Hints:
By secondary structure, chain A is α+β, with helices and mostly antiparallel strands. Chain A has helices at residues 34-49, 53-58, 133-141, and strands spanning 3-5, 9-17, 65-72, 81-89, 95-104, 110-119, 145-147.
Amino acid sequence: MPLKYSSNLLVVQTEIRIRFSEVDSMGVVWHGNYLKYFEDGREAFGRKHGLGYLDFFNNNILTPLVSIECNYKLPLIYGDAAIIYTKYIDCEAAKLLFEYKILKKDTNETIVTAKSTQVFLNSNRELMLTFPDFFIEWKRKMGIIRVC
Amino acid sequence: MPLKYSSNLLVVQTEIRIRFSEVDSMGVVWHGNYLKYFEDGREAFGRKHGLGYLDFFNNNILTPLVSIECNYKLPLIYGDAAIIYTKYIDCEAAKLLFEYKILKKDTNETIVTAKSTQVFLNSNRELMLTFPDFFIEWKRKMGIIRVC
Amino acid sequence: MPLKYSSNLLVVQTEIRIRFSEVDSMGVVWHGNYLKYFEDGREAFGRKHGLGYLDFFNNNILTPLVSIECNYKLPLIYGDAAIIYTKYIDCEAAKLLFEYKILKKDTNETIVTAKSTQVFLNSNRELMLTFPDFFIEWKRKMGIIRVC
Amino acid sequence: MPLKYSSNLLVVQTEIRIRFSEVDSMGVVWHGNYLKYFEDGREAFGRKHGLGYLDFFNNNILTPLVSIECNYKLPLIYGDAAIIYTKYIDCEAAKLLFEYKILKKDTNETIVTAKSTQVFLNSNRELMLTFPDFFIEWKRKMGIIRVC
């Protein structure tokens, strides 16, 4: 009996404030620091929806990133407040996809967009080719999977 | 008189050793730290070929990243030695492209591949739609531009 | 007419949550990351009391750290919530002193204590041997200075 | 038969070059980054003298920092080359002490001095009140311990 996936999208918002130590000598956030913000976003998503590193970890599953792609539109400077939008993208392959958009809080301008792909490793650190049971259960709970 | 660009490629190698502070709680280099290594690679390229941040800076030009794309193949752990290959990719648009490959030193395995795009901002921090003179001069010196 | 300083203390609390990227391969916050948390504390103090980097910056004054001293008592791990207490310590010399204490939120255990010293540099980046006017004004406003 | 400790000092030199991502918006190395450089120094010491994290780790011993103290004298900027001097300081208590001095390479000016203290934790992460055997053996090999 085949599984079907809805086009369901889940988004979590997180507010950050730019730290002095995150700004480079051009006076703007150093581009590499955005990967921390995306991780903040994924963590906020995980805390809200029971899909954090620790939830995976407690199921003996690791979820390393295998790719990330960022497009930088406008800079942020020290003291700026910004909102990270982290969107879960459902996928039929045994992968975990998120899309990110960071907006400057006071102007609503788009600062960065990005997209990351994670895979599942089992307790022997081997690549899993199918979804872990824990994750299928999570999808069901979230209404993402609908059995035909 | 039109300019032509050769398919000339320029590659610089840089050796790094993984720091304790760069490794995460899974015991592997945190994925965001690779952006520092790529920057190390660009800097090494710049120092060798007269195309560093300071060379641009002294010409009143900034070169912020507008996109980066990384593909993670295998992890590095604390103490590993690795080689960053940073390759200049010539381009007809007013952009600066680099491709990166990081290999584990002792096994020659590919750890990460990546590609970045930078643009040119003038002294008013406005996007330049054509190459700065300084950069055209650099291309000429490097034998990348050939006048017909 | 000599100035006198009260022993007035000012404390600001800031809550942080430990990021995955801040934890090292022993599973605890890497010791160097606490300096970011202290800076978070100073910034929160500055935002609350009009004494942030930007307030100094707008008065053409830089306040680089000249010393820091940290004592680590207990570790924090990924996902922990903690409270930074940042205490302004008044001082007769032309210096800016803060003391920090970080407590684990749920147990109230002391994690780290620390103390930092900053100096004032004028617009030529020269050491100022007396307090900048702006800062004397701030002390007055805060009731720290009492004229005899 | 009591052990005696000589006043033997051991120093290792490490060269670093300041990365763009290590410089803050004042154009100088962000003060917290020096803790990475000190760790670079300890690691270089460890690699040279068989006293690295992995040597401890392989003996089931962890050596967390319990205190660090830094005094900042002069700034370093992007591209500067500097030398870290890492000095082992022998001590009768069950601690591991290092002193650090960072000099700017081309001028020999002192940039920062610092000192760190580490303790020994056994495989249960309990504080060890006496030196681990492995470390006594190391001291003997280094000629630091002299049996009367």
